[in-house]
Specification:
By secondary structure, the chain is α/β, with parallel strands linked by helices. It folds into 2 domains: 227 residues, Aldehyde Dehydrogenase, Chain A, domain 1 (3-Layer(aba) Sandwich); 138 residues, Aldehyde Dehydrogenase, Chain A, domain 2, CATH 3.40.309.10. It has a 7-stranded parallel beta sheet with strand order 10-9-11-8-7-12-13, with helices on both faces. It is globular, with a radius of gyration of 24 Å. It starts with a helix and ends with a strand.
Length: 382
């Protein structure tokens, strides 16, 4: 058999395998649509228990994934997202338990009205069906995505990054154990059993109508590919160029804690702060301690001209810094003339992901919350 023939046969095998995954997910979705809240919550709690019981196996497989990634000389931010610890496994388990505690969205009546002819109409929340989730090498997403889909009554097809294949496979086994413990179909949450990227293209095609929606979670190239190639609806966002604006009415000690946490808690996640904006009215008194707090935490700072006038040793920022998602211990700093300029900067350079204001002025906070069009807008928080 020639190489070309072998490749064609391999693609054919993957196609058949993925179509079988799609059919099984579609069948499971019908059962999930009528699953009770008690059944779903029982499955979720059993998943959390399985994660704790199998933590050693999860960490052992993750160590192999991380070792391969280090051999491939992948970036530090990538390794951070890939790496699991006992604390992160426990956080996954707690996260699933918290999902179990959420109200069941399925069956909620959003609106109801009667027509003059006596017809009674209701708008009711129902599951979407089968959700395909394509994500990079973040093994925790396997647990988060599977649990959230289950709670909402949806079947899930999970395609994780190839670099986390071992870790995600082990985590997926815990999800299946939870489903089986509650008497729900194991096929309700499926993990694509191949590293071959051809599986991604097949998911984007919809698997012969089996997939109702695709959710990508990852970097710009992944999300861009999904948006360009998907033949089913897509729920997506691109980069996370996130901001913290320190207002003239902010408390300095609070601002230091929020800024350092927003940037340094986990630098490799898309919700980490990438730009710090400081009101010119307090720049002379606030900027130096804010930058020193960041530097003490190991963050490298790049500042505009006004920032460097206050703190001369800061590396000069360039135009591209305002649009860069560093995913690293780097932050860009800019002095702005009040809240209006801060909002304009966020609107110009931001990605509508997560933005925060630090202030004790309620009117300023209300304006920021109203005018900043991001998925998450925070006041005195990170």
């Amino acid at each position: 058999m020639s190489l070309a023939e072998a490749e064609t046969e391999t693609r054919s095998d993957i196609g058949a395998q993925m179509r079988a995954v799609g059919r099984a997910a579609r069948a499971a979705a019908r059962r999930l649509a009528r699953a009770t809240t008690a059944e779903k919550n029982k499955a979720l709690m059993a998943m959390a228990t399985a994660l704790r019981d199998r933590a050693a196996a999860i960490l052992a497989d993750n160590a192999l994934d991380v070792a391969d990634a280090k051999d491939a000389k992948l970036a530090g931010s990538f390794l951070d997202r890939l790496t699991l610890t006992p604390e992160r496994v426990e956080a996954m388990a707690r996260g699933i338990e918290e999902i179990a505690e959420l109200p069941d969205p399925v069956g909620t009546v959003l609106a109801a009205w009667d027509r003059p002819n006596g017809l009674h109409i209701e708008r009711v929340r129902t599951p979407l069906g089968v959700i395909g989730i394509i994500y990079e090498s973040r093994p925790n997403v396997t647990a988060d995505a599977g649990a959230l889909c289950l709670k909402a009554g949806n079947a899930a097809i999970l395609r994780g990054g190839s670099d986390s294949f071992r870790s995600s496979t082990e985590i997926h086994a815990c999800l299946v154990a939870g489903l089986e413990a509650a008497g729900l179909p194991a096929e309700a949450i499926q993990f694509v059993p191949t590293r071959d990227r051809a599986a991604v293209g097949l998911m984007l095609s919809g698997l012969d109508g089996a997939v109702d929606v695709i959710v990508p979670r990852g970097g710009k190239s992944l999300v861009g590919r999904v948006q360009m190639e998907a033949r089913v609806p897509v729920f997506a966002h691109l980069e996370g160029v996130c901001h913290v604006y320190v207002d003239r009415e902010a408390d300095l000690e609070m601002a230091k804690k929020i800024v350092v946490n927003a940037k340094m808690r986990r630098t490799g996640v898309c919700g980490a702060a990438e730009t710090l904006l400081v009101d010119a009215k307090v720049a002379d008194s606030f900027l130096k301690p804010l930058i020193e707090a960041l530097q003490a935490a190991g963050c490298r700072v790049r500042g505009d001209e006004r920032s460097r006038h206050v703190v001369p040793g800061v590396t000069p920022a360039v135009e591209s810094d305002w649009t860069t998602e560093y995913l690293d211990a780097v932050i860009a700093v800019k002095v702005v003339d009040g809240i209006k300029e801060a909002i304009e900067h966020i609107e110009t350079y931001g990605t509508h992901h997560t933005d925060s204001i630090v202030t004790n002025d309620k009117r300023a906070a209300q304006r920021f919350m109203a005018e900043v069009d991001s998925a998450i807008v925070l006041h005195n928080a990170s």
